[in-house]
Amino acid sequence: MPQLNPAPWFFIMTISWLTFSLIIQPKILSFVSMNPPSNKPSTTTATTPWTWPWT
């Protein structure tokens, strides 16, 4: 069964992951986030329970 031969596919997968982790990922992570997280305290809203007509 030729599907069980990992020789060509393992090499392709290894080269793909090395390319992603060494070349593409640092370029993507170098971008500055346009919406940095803010230090505002989160406000909780008061909710009222729903009045179900069948109760």
Automatic annotation (TrEMBL):
Molecular-function annotations in GO: proton transmembrane transporter activity
Membrane topology designation: Single-pass membrane protein
A biological process from GO: proton motive force-driven ATP synthesis
InterPro entries: ATP8_metazoa, ATPase_protein_8
Keywords for this protein: ATP synthesis, CF(0), Hydrogen ion transport, Ion transport, Membrane, Mitochondrion, Transmembrane, Transmembrane helix, Transport
Cited Pfam families: ATP-synt_8
Membrane-spanning intervals of the chain: 6-24
Subcellular location: Mitochondrion membrane
Record-level GO cellular component terms: mitochondrial membrane; proton-transporting ATP synthase complex
Main location: mitochondrion
Origin: domain of life: Eukaryota
Keyword Transmembrane helix: yes
Homology family: Belongs to the ATPase protein 8 family.
Name of this chain's protein: ATP synthase complex subunit 8
Species this chain originates from: Bucanetes mongolicus (Mongolian finch)
Gene name as annotated: ATP8
